[in-house]
Amino acid sequence: MYDMFQALLQAPSYHLFFEALLIIWIFKLLFFSKAYAPESVLTEKEKEELIAEWQPEPLAPEIPDDHPVLMAMENNIITGKPGKYVTINGKSCVNMATLNFLGMAGNPSVEAEAIKTLKKYGVGSCGPRGFYGTMDVHLELEDKIAKFMNCEEAILYAFGFATIASAIPAYSKRGDVIFADEGVCFAIQKGLVASRSKIKWFKHNDMEDLERLLIEQAKEDKKNPKKAKVTRRFLVVEGLYINYGDLCPLPKLVELKWKYKVRLFLEESLSFGILGSNGKGVTEHYNISPDDIDLIAASLENAIGSTGGFCCGKKYIVDHQRLSGLGYCFSASLPPMLATAAIESLRLIDEKPGMLVELRENCEKIHSKLSDINGTVIVGEPISPVKHIRLAEPSTDRDFDVQTLQKIADLSRDNKVAVTLARYLEEEEHKLPLPSIRISVNNQLSDEEIDTVFTTLSEAFQKIITH
Amino acid sequence: MSMVETIYMPSENDFRGKTKKFNGVQNGGKISNGCHKKTKQVDEETEKAWEKDFCETFEETPMLAAISTYIGYLILVAVGHVREFLKSIGIGVVKCVAEPKIPGFVPLYQTWESFYSWYVYRRIQDCFCRPVSGVPGAKMVVIDRESNDHRWSFQYTGGHSTVLNFGSYNYLGFSQNSGPCAEEVEQTIKNYGVSVCGSRQELGYLDLHKQMDRLVADYLGVEDAYTVPMGFATNSMNIPSLVGKGCLILSDELNHASLILGCRLSGAKIKTFKHNCMKDLEKNLREAIVDKQPRTHRPWKKILIVVEGVYSMEGSIVKLPEVLRLKKKYKAYLYLDEAHSIGAIGPHGKGVVDYFGLNPRDVDIMMGTFTKSFGAVGGYIGGSQALVNHLRLYSHSAIYSSSMAPGVAQQIVSSMNIMLGRDGTREGEKRIQQLKWNTRYFRRRLQEMGFILYGNKDSPVVPLLMFMPSKIAKFSRESLNRGMGVVVVGFPATPMTKCRARFCLSASHTKEMLDEALQITSDIGDLLAIKYSKAEPPSYSENDVPLVEDS
Predict the structure, then answer these.
(1) A91 touches chain B (CB under 8 A)
(2) In what residue span(s) does the Aminotransferase class I/classII large domain sit (chain B) (predicted)?
(3) Which listed site, A119, A151, B13, B399, has its alpha carbon 20 to 30 Å from A464?
């Protein structure tokens, strides 16, 4: 040992320098060098060959011009106003297809308001909300909606689908958790995908399944409290499900919200302006304060008979979307004439809540009548304005069932009752509902018309099914 | 903030490199501001004739401006932190509506998200979201508002100001509340109602929609077209039905948020290339085909190039002939978003394909919106019959959203008939020529005054660079006081040091209005010392644009 030390002191400096370099190099090789991967370097000629050989798939697959859905669309072009009666191919049919529940789409005072606004504002607003696209009518509509729903603030979108699809990703980001009902509509599904959060699906309207998931999440949180502190949790449900026509059990959901500390987002496209004694939606129906719901989103394209959508809730929640809602910041605002049409519709609902009672009565009448059709199952609550008629004995082939229902719908249309199949993107839905004919009820139907609808549908079903 | 990640993706090079390449020759320190001269790399055989007339400028940021901008941001952020600290110890009034602390709930927002909103954006909040009353035509009526608490909240004074409108997207001047379009829309509302309340596949398909689709296809020169009631949604709902997992999307780095969202929702792999840089695009294409998918090394199913016609923040026009050449060579598909170029450029107002004199059938997917040039809302996608049939069946908007309101559809039909000359007048031609003349005149005069403008000489979107965030606020307020409404944009919609004002020209602006605007801009420019440009005067002019006289 002592000798070695002597040798070190006596060694020439270049030798020591060399040794030091060697040690550093060994160190680097041991700890800092990447694994040596033999690179396959292609020559230019080989690259050109690869480029010439590569063939992409066709951009869009060839679709025959007589595809059933395309044919269905071409054969059912509407002329004139789609109100209580709709003119298809020159024939005037009772309209049981479009979601015009309160008849606002043919209402003369709504039209008069729209025309008045057209004469002042023109058609388009020519800009997004941040850049001179904010018209006073938008501010008025937001104000009226907030007052109508007893919320602090409302924010207006130009398109119903974009409303919930922009609202969810504005709050929920990568790393957050969202508990969503399996039966939610496609717009919500797209919002969930855009948020990049972890989605946990619970069975449709099954509160026990939801509680099971919440308990699992609580257990995970206990294991990792640091992560739990920054993971936001949301619960997304619809007030009235368009795919199933049933209500969400809101009291139980609110209870779970407070118990497990999740934020509740409620989508009310089908229940706004329909449920509750004043049309305030599912919160009024169950007598729950909207303060318990973090965000209510709805589309104005159904009962209100206009275009667009809104979100309402507490100011600190809704205001966030003014800078983070993609569909709000980067899109032109709602055309002013459609905004005033919505204001007028809201005013009419406020003035005449009797419309809602009429609608509810018609829904219940139709529900009880349609339950008597042989060979069918009617899906949906009695008070729901959207009902699905499914085959009682479906075959194993979905396409065959869809064709059967299409024939029934066509026959019914020939006999002056316009109905439609519920359409879905079959490959992309999270949980594809069974094929059905979708009936939408409106408040203006008389008893005779309801009887006509029942008779026509019943005959159509009988004829095609027994065939 | 989510806005940061989705709007602006910073490039590795800033425009410094581009200036040298595309801004012509440096003559002893002076940068030529004229048209692009051929550089040494141009291949003799492939004479790029379009390059002779392609004139884009992106002048370098002056050093002093850059430094003072950074200092400005530093001060802003420092003051914000001080206020935040004071708030936390109870001093000082911060009138924000803060998120209440509910026990057990994870807070919705991070503190740094609100920081930008409260301490930076709020200071210049009065420049945005200005409420307008009445039609946003060549002039608009802005509702006056004031703030007594440093812009935390606004109150209406009860007054209105009629100002020149350089902020709304009204390129062809169809934003009108009277005239043939408005009359036809009124009649349509009486015949068809206000809305349809049903999706296209579920009995919401009017004969008016069919007529509109046909007319859009005729206008563009493609086989068929498909329309969607919202421009933003046209991208976000249709890109996912065209590409999916296993496909590659090559997207320009300055693409609009709707394109970025659509690409993300599709599930395909996304790669960005430098803004309008054809070399980078070609490099990415070659790498994609040769190296194939990462990890699995399967070849890509499809490659989609996504570009815009006119980029609204830069005023640049896509180099379409080059993109088409690359597309054909590498068998990729092209998605062209003409939101700001349809109706606004081209000798017949048919967009960027018309501008370069190319065949519209070469572009696989021609997308555009009706909001900017046709005074309506909504978007379209035009292309081959197979493509449009596919979209009619599988687009999200055909099934899950109600179809376009009849009044809006009629506005599109009426304005397109005028543009095509089918109403028997030369009104359409007149508007296009007027817009072109306005663009050349306005840009030439501003550049002569010494402002730095970005973009192509033919782009009706005119970004005027001011660099400092405080200057854009002052510009916006001063110009409103003097009778002109402009849009100002800063971070995060633009790079941090490149805040700008953006003028949107319109065919409805008369020469007198333009002169007034130029005078106001010049006065404020002197006040704020933003005439930074050191370039030579431009070589193009409006004199070679013939105007159509009133018959």
Answers:
(1) no
(2) 162-519
(3) B399
Residues near A455 by Cβ (< 8 Å), separated by ≥ 6? none
pLDDT per residue over A139-197, tens digit each?
Answer: 999 999 999 999 999 999 999 999 999 999 999 999 999 999 999 999 999 999 999 99
Q: Which of B224, B197, B352 is nearest to A160 (CA)?
A: B197
What is the architecture, at CATH level 2, of domain A108-351?
A: 3-Layer(aba) Sandwich (3.40)
- Of residues A39 and A433, the one with the higher pLDDT is A433
Q: Is A224 exposed, middle or buried (0-12, 13-18, 19+ CB in 10 A)?
A: exposed
Query: Per the structure block, which two tokens stand in for B98?
Result: 């803060």
This model of the complex carries an ipTM of: 0.89
For residues B145 and B152, what is the distance between their CA atoms, to the nearest angstrom?
Answer: 13
pTM (whole model) above 0.80:
yes
Give A-chain residues touching B104 at CB under 8 angstroms: 261
Q: Which two tokens stand for residue A32?
A: 């800092």
Contacts of B384 in chain A (CB under 8 A): 60
CA distance A102 to A34: 70
Contact between B208 and B406 (Cβ < 8 Å) = yes
Q: Is the pLDDT of residue A290 over 60?
A: yes
Chain A partners of B333 at a C-beta cutoff of 8 Å? 56, 59
Nearest by CB to A332, from B377, B390, B394: name it.
Answer: B377
**Residue B535 Cα distances to B26, B52, B291, B466, angstroms:** 10, 20, 43, 16
Asked if B175 lies within 8 A of A99 by C-beta distance, the reply is no
Closest CB from A57, A123, A425 relative to B408:
A123
Confirm or reject CATH 3.90.1150.10 for domain A68-95+357-466, answering yes or no: yes
- The answer on pLDDT for B23 being more than 60 is no
pLDDT tens digit string along B268-309?
Answer: 999 999 999 999 999 999 999 988 888 888 999 999 999 999
The CA-based angle A428-A429-A435, given to 5 degrees, is 115
Mean pLDDT of B421-436: 92
Q: Could you give phi then psi for residue B259, rounded to 5 degrees?
A: -65, -40
CA pair distance B336, B318, nearest whole angstrom:
9
Q: How far apart are CA B360 and CA B366, in angstroms?
A: 8
Query: What whole-number distance in Å separates Cα of residue B503 and Cα of residue B435?
Result: 13
Q: What is the distance of C-alpha A115 from the center of its chain?
A: 31
CB contact (8 A) between residue A338 and residue B194: yes
Reduce the DSSP state of residue B139 to 3 states and report it: strand
Q: How confident is the model over A238-260, as pLDDT tens digits?
A: 999 999 999 999 999 999 999 99
Is A185 in Cβ contact with B131 (below 8 Å)?
Answer: no
Least confident of A160-169, A308-317, B493-502: B493-502
Task: Tell which residue, B108, B154, B158, has the closest CA to residue B130.
Answer: B154
Alpha-carbon gap, residue A381 to A387, rounded angstroms: 8
Q: For position B32, what pLDDT does the model report?
A: 40
Q: Which residues of B touch A112 (CB under 8 A)?
A: none
Cis before B492? omega within 30: yes
Chain B residues with CB under 8 Å of A423 CB are 199, 201-202, 399
The domain ranges of chain A are: 68-95+357-466, 108-351
What's the length of chain B? 551
Residue B178 DSSP symbol: S
- Within 10 angstroms of residue A69's Cβ, the number of other Cβ atoms is 18
**A 343-402 residues with CB < 8 A to B:** none
- Residue B349: closest CA among B487, B220, B490: B220
**Quick one: what percent of chain A has pLDDT higher than 90?**
77
Cβ of B265 within 8 Å of Cβ of A319? The answer is: no
